[in-house]
Amino acid sequence: MRNKLDIIDVKILEGLAKYGPRNITKVAKKLDIPRGTVLSRIKRMSSSFYLRLLTNVYHTNLDMRKVVVFAKATLGQEDLLFNCMKVNQFYIYISRCYGMFEGCVAVYVVPKGHTKKFEHFLLEIRKLGVAKDIKIFWSTCLSTVNLTRNWFDSVSETWMFPWDKWLEEISSKENELPDRLKDPESFTLKADETDLFILKELEKNATISLTAIAKKFGTTLQNIRYHYENHVIKHGLIEAFQIAILPFERTTSNMLFFAFRFDSKEKTGKFARSLLDKPFANMVGKVLDENVLVAQVYLPRVEFRNFVDALSKLVREGFLQSYEYVLQDLRSGKWSRETIPYEFFRNGSWVYDHGEHVRSLHDLVNRLAYHEVKPVR
Predict the structure, then answer these.
(1) What's the CATH number of domain 193-235, 2.40.128, 2.20.110, 1.10.10, 2.30.30?
(2) pTM score, two decimals?
(3) Are 243 and 17 in contact (CB under 8 A)?
(4) Which pLDDT value is given to residue 376?
(5) Fewest CB atoms less than 10 Å from the CB: which of 63, 72, 158, 270?
(6) Which whole number is the average pLDDT over 54-62?
(7) Distance of alpha carbon 159 from alpha carbon 13, whole angstroms
(8) pLDDT at residue 369 tops 90
């Protein structure tokens, strides 16, 4: 079994991103490759490179604000912090992390009217002595960056990392942010319960059939198809189909979360656009009302050091003000990905029980006095 991607693999990944993972036949036709070959290569990449065909929801149109959290643990409380942050079940991603600090990095989606309560929840974790410091980045959409053949040498079938070329490219980029990264004019609820169920299932598997979703929801195919076409698609509830893959050797690569700070919106826009076709970027977002970008990055360790050297040069040149990062702990049980919190949507609105979050948090910490804490979820 090959342990690296070839040019056909990369073209298939590009096709899945362009035409959607629900259109395998179209991908095969556009690439002039038998459909069976496309399917067999997807299967191989799923095994060898952890390929997952997912859906990234556009939470802005669900009346939800996205927030990235860097939490520094009190020494000795790292696992407890991980479990405390999972008490609030509006998280969609959480991971233990290390590097600049030991702790957790997480992404939550919080109903618009409850942002202050969420911040109070995090403050409570600090008051309980589980975390020493918590940084909150209220963000725009975390825009998906799918893999392209940019920086891929089809002759040697290896990834190239021309960092000097990237630095030159940044200055020539358009300085306006992509639409998905602009501060939204409003947060509105454009979905109902059926729409959210469809989104929840697509988040887990973008290729699931509408027939299977209808069966799970206990309704007709016609009803699900109507909601998918006339609500999910027309109301812009999907940001992008995410062709998630780990293209570099997992044992010698790192997954990281970065926060980049700039002194102008023009520099922020240029840097953001420079990441949107790079093989090391997974997703990019902008902090609301600030010239700060947050990004998830995956890099071979040797190239990570070169990436940091490139960032250092941008700081010296006055383009980048500062940056910080954490390395994610991808060991089993040290990270968790969840779908939209569908179970907390009732009677046409989100139910965010702050009191229950705080009570559960205290109960979890108090149990330490008697026995070892069991993992949440």
Answers:
(1) 1.10.10
(2) 0.94
(3) yes
(4) 56
(5) 158
(6) 97
(7) 15
(8) no
